[in-house]
Amino acid sequence: MTSPTGALLAFSNALADTVEAAGRAVVAVDTHARSTPSGVLWREGVVVTADHLLKRDDEITVTLHDGRTVAATLAGRDPGTDLAVLRLADAPAPEVPFGDAQLLKVGHLALALARPGEHGLSASLGTVCNVGGPWRTWRGGQIDRLIRLDLSLFPGFSGGALVDTEGRIVGINTAALSRSTGIAIPAATVDRVVDQLLATGRVARGYLGIGMQPVRLPDSLRATLNLPGTGAVIVVNLEADAPAERAGVLLGDVFIGIDGHTVGDTEEVLALLTPERVGKSVPVQIVRGGQLVEVSVTVGERLRRGT
């Protein structure tokens, strides 16, 4: 029978072995700045790191697990998800398995791995303290699943790996998307952003050029027009020559649907302005003067902060 001390030693050794194995994919990113992020060798020749700590676009180097330092070039940034992608001319494919963050549950043990500058591989052990569904960051990025962490993200840990109890990398850690806890960006989100940044150098975000406020639809109007929901959004501002104005949207129009999806608040409108819809004409269902109206809006690309 294994003694309590023996069980604890076995658990400790297993953790150390997991850190060592998964740490082969964790790198140090050097931009010759005071604060530097960690990164993860996500694919052959591709490193993912934290955008908010990547202070420059050139003269970037990456130190691999074996101590080699190689030059890197910036493929693209997505501040919305706090991810940046680097290309490396001489870096192998990661030797670490990747997992599905959808399998994480509240209370699961998790490891945050990092290489904060000259300090070598570092680890922080904690738990998953909260999980949720898809969410939109305060920077406008779409994250496939909310994962809050009850562990310490020390300086330089942003951009490092979240590792589950089977030694699989399931996400990228960041301290920039929440003021209260560390956040893990799920591997599915990272894959999507990496694909877009490698292809175009940016993640396009939809833009209508309107100011919106949520409103509650009167029961009498809902009954008359046979509307499915109680909420909608009203247009309170129109930017000149923006997509909405060019499509004929008017001040006071009430949006109830976009591209076949009902919208009950501003977050639902923003969530539908996905990269896939940029440049495409989408039908918008509107209540105007007590009548249902449909207009076609060609979704623009938001280049600056705005809607």
From TrEMBL:
Keywords: Hydrolase, Protease
Stretches that traverse the bilayer: none
InterPro entries recorded: Chloro_Bact_Ser_Proteases, PDZ, PDZ_sf, Peptidase_S1_PA, Peptidase_S1C
Xref: Gene3D superfamilies: 2.30.42.10, 2.40.10.120
One Gene Ontology term of the molecular function aspect: serine-type endopeptidase activity
Superkingdom: Bacteria
Protein name: Serine protease
Organism annotation: Gloeobacter violaceus (strain ATCC 29082 / PCC 7421)
